[in-house]
Amino acid sequence: MTERPSRMPPASKERRESTSISDFRLIKTALEETDDGPVTSPIFTRHRLEGFRQDYKALIDKEGGEKTMTIPGLSFKPEDAVTVTLRQEVKKFFGWANNNAKDELKEGEEFLVRILNFKDVHGRTATITLYERDDIKIVHKSTVELVGYELNPNRHYTRYPPALTDSSEVWKMKDMQAHCPLSIGVEFHALHGPEKLYPTREQLAKSIDSWTEEWEQSDLRKALVEALEPNAKNMPEVKKIVCFGLGYLFPDLDHCRAYIQHLAARDIGKILEKGQTKDKAHPHEIKIYAQDPRYREVCIGLLEELGITTVDAYSAEGILLIDEHTFIVEIAAGPDFMEPAVDIAFPNGPAGYLSRKVSGNKEQARDKAITTGPVYDAALNEVSDRVWKYRESCAQFPAVTDAKRFGFPPSRITRTREIIVPDNAPQSGEDSIPHINYIIETDENGQDVMSKFDTELLLRRSL
């Protein structure tokens, strides 16, 4: 096996020694479920999310002074809660901030920052300082993520934030909210770069024509049509399509992937509008929405051309659009969006779902201790029992996949052997993140073991 160095945040000793079965029991206890079976109650309800969004909007409201919000834990008991306070402060720029800020601020110039102070009943604290254009966002966790939070730090890897906030504070913020299904996070916009770095609609014109032609002639589109057309009348009526995390629409390493996934959402709408129209005098209409924090202004304009309306990602607006008449398109997010979607549309679940292929029911294997460290396997997408049952209630079409456009090219399976913290490691700054030794799985011939990230189409059967 080959060792490859990388960087990841450390998991706490207590969490590394934890087992998934005990954490699942903690969730059941918090939900007042007394049996030994899987978690049956929805963690995400419309009422809870609406209440959380209302508190979130009050927190980020720029009018008034200091604001405080309570972030409930699973049990909604005071001892499980985290409080966050937001205040504003004026600072002076002295060249220590990131390069993007240097383009906008002059030496000695005053600028406004927002400061988030997190605190829990155990006395733990975290302080996050944000530029004015940075965003505060709602974060939602699945049952599987609540169980395995620090046991798989790869899953929570974040690029280093701007110099205003130390990386260790970001991890403290995450740790304090580890067992909060709905929590507060931040989006550092300096990591995306200024708007001027992105191409215009005119500069993208040729790429768009090429991507559209590629999609219309692809076997993937053919497989999608063949799955939807004969089944449109056998599934619940679809009134809207909601897309999550399909990506910004620019040429990059993913080439045409993001734009083609949005084209797929548009075509799903067209196929279902035609297939579910009962009276030609009153054609069936389906509205399409898309949520992604990476959308830029040019993306929003391009999506409008496709008949897709963008919604606010930071306040989780798209989640509240979901009901049993919703078709969801999210290719890579997995349980992070699938479980809230199934819970919000409880008890039947969404009408249809195009997503990363589900690989197993995590709660059926919850007696296995998670002690070996994180594993990156592109094919691994284990879900809660509630999501698994939703999948089983659907007609499944695994042929609707394509590594270039929908899934992900084959990638190496990696495992973490150990966390290496140098004795002289600083307590803050970039180097405070300890080194990790990666181990790449190899076969008997010494070749890297590869896994493939596939997608599948799910169509809920009419009751």
What would you call the shape? globular
CATH topology of the largest domain: Rossmann fold
Structural class: alpha/beta
Indicate the radius of gyration in whole angstroms: 23 Å
Organism: Massarina eburnea CBS 473.64
InterPro entries: SRR1-like
Protein name: SRR1-like domain-containing protein
Briefly summarize what is shown:
By secondary structure, the protein is of the alpha/beta class. It has helices at residues 13-16, 20-30, 46-60, 99-102, 143-148, 167-176, 201-216, 219-228, 257-275, 297-305, 317-320, 335-344, 385-392; strands spanning 2-7, 67-71, 82-92, 110-120, 125-131, 135-140, 182-187, 240-244, 287-291, 308-310, 326-329, 352-356, 360-361, 375-376, 382-383, 394-397, 408-412, 414-420, 435-440, 450-453, 455-460. It is globular and about 60 Å long.
Descriptive overview:
The protein is of the alpha/beta class. The protein has 2 domains: 12-191, no CATH class; 198-410 and 450-460, Rossmann fold (3-Layer(aba) Sandwich). Helix content is 27%, strand content 24%. It contains 13 helices and 21 strands. The chain has helices at 13-16, 20-30, 46-60, 99-102, 143-148, 167-176, 201-216, 219-228, 257-275, 297-305, 317-320, 335-344, 385-392; strands spanning 2-7, 67-71, 82-92, 110-120, 125-131, 135-140, 182-187, 240-244, 287-291, 308-310, 326-329, 352-356, 360-361, 375-376, 382-383, 394-397, 408-412, 414-420, 435-440, 450-453, 455-460. The strands form 6 sheets. It has a 7-stranded mixed β-sheet, sandwiched between helices. β11 (326-329), α12 (335-344) and β12 (352-356) form a beta-alpha-beta unit. α7 crosses α9 (257-275) and α8 runs parallel beside α9. The N and C termini lie far apart (51 Å). The model is unreliable at 1-19, 96-102, 151-160, 369-373 and 417-436 (pLDDT under 50). Residues 1-18 have a biased composition (Basic and acidic residues). Residues 225-327 form the SRR1-like domain. It comes from Massarina eburnea CBS 473.64.
